[in-house]
Write a structure and sequence with these properties.
The protein is mainly α. It contains 16 helices and no strands.
Length: about 375
């Protein structure tokens, strides 16, 4: 798989949009609007799709991770997560100060004493309550996955298929259990939810390397089954409990999309799909705050249409604002800091003592064989 798989980047955008639709629906339902409860009810599964996707992609990109590269790996991960997280938190602090100084409003979910804990993304482990930017709980759990990933990839990257298959089946069964009984967003339950999804994605990626590449027709069939399963489960009444199968269908879809040869993968190559995927992290972190600020400043009831149309027009307008702001922050915060993290990680790898000791031997051997120049090494 290439450094960036366009279909997998794109699908991440739809998962973030699904989570955003859930929060739009929850917020609008509280004030008497019910726009698309069937579509948005299972939006929480978008987070589980993130975990599976993250494990799958890191399992491909960092399959050869060594202990000497651990610092560079964690540097890239930190620069991928913290800049945008801290930028959103900074904006929330400014809004908190404005509301407190002007109106004396005090929000119990935004206590200053917990601000350092939240800034470090430790809140799900020390305070069992959603606070400040509520959606950031999953980013905290993702960091735990990053810390454990080197151990997991080094233990499993040479594992035979007969070992990986039971691992995948076991994690799939645990995922099913979590979806039914333990969908926590803090504490051990949240960590288990993240680790199981992340591990499932990583194990799927490693297993796929031990199988022959499927034909385009078979890949398309797998994509359609995965996507169709997600749509079918999401369209059913919550009382039927089909939603707990969504991560399993998503895992199949991610696996098939990674081959980049099926009909769904070709559709996800559209520029707007790739754009949505690239801004997905900003969209995920920002949307709840944009919804809250927009409702305080200009609620849907101010619009001159019918009750239903007011809610629909307001939601689409605020969603458009979310997409615009996410694009801007992706351009001015996410991408620049991602590049800085990449350059710093490459500098750490170049200055690794072990690599420096090995480099002369490698360059001499390659040069004498006539296959590479010392400069290329």
């Amino acid at each position: 798989m290439r450094q960036e798989s366009v279909p997998l980047t794109s699908i991440r955008g739809f998962a973030a949009l699904w989570v955003a639709l859930l929060h739009f629906q929850l917020g609008m339902a509280d004030v008497g609007y019910s726009l698309w409860p069937g579509l948005s009810h299972y939006g929480y599964a978008g987070v589980d799709i993130f975990f599976i996707l993250s494990g799958f992609i890191l399992g491909a990109v960092y399959r050869g991770l060594a202990w000497r590269n651990l610092g560079a790996f964690l540097t890239r991960r930190a620069f991928r997560v913290y800049p945008m997280h801290l930028a959103v938190l900074g904006g929330m602090v400014l809004l908190w100060l404005d509301a407190y100084l002007r109106f004396g409003v005090h929000n119990e979910a935004q206590q200053l004493r917990w601000l350092p804990v939240f800034a470090l993304l430790l809140q799900p482990f020390v305070y069992h309550r959603l606070m400040w930017n509520a959606v950031a709980w999953s980013i905290s759990v993702e960091l735990v996955c990053y810390l454990l990933f080197p151990i997991a990839i080094m233990a499993l990257r040479h594992a035979r298929l007969w070992l990986l298959v039971p691992v995948i089946l076991g994690l799939g069964a645990i995922e099913h259990h979590l979806q039914i009984y333990d969908l926590y967003v803090w504490g051990d339950g949240a960590v288990a939810r993240g680790l199981v999804g992340f591990g499932l994605g990583m194990a799927l990626r490693l297993a796929s390397e031990r199988l022959p590449v499927p034909s385009a027709r078979l890949t398309s069939l797998g994509e359609l089954v995965g996507l169709g399963g997600i749509v079918f489960c999401a369209s059913q009444s919550p009382s039927l409990d089909f939603g707990h199968y969504i991560p399993h269908f998503a895992a199949l879809l991610i696996l098939c999309l990674s081959y980049d040869s099926g009909i769904v993968a070709r559709g996800l190559h559209a520029r707007w799909c790739l754009w949505l995927g690239r801004i997905s992290f900003s969209l995920y972190l920002m949307h709840e705050n944009v919804i809250g600020v927009a409702w305080m400043r200009f609620p849907a009831s101010r619009l001159p249409f019918s009750h239903y149309m007011n809610g629909l027009v307001w939601t689409l307008g605020v969603l458009a604002v979310c997409l615009v702001l996410s694009t801007v922050t992706w351009l001015v915060i996410e991408e620049p800091f991602r590049r800085i993290g990449g350059r710093l990680a490459r500098w750490m790898e170049r200055n690794d003592p072990e690599r420096a000791r090995r480099a002369p031997r490698r360059s001499t051997a390659l040069s004498s064989a006539g296959s590479e120049s010392p400069a290329a090494v």
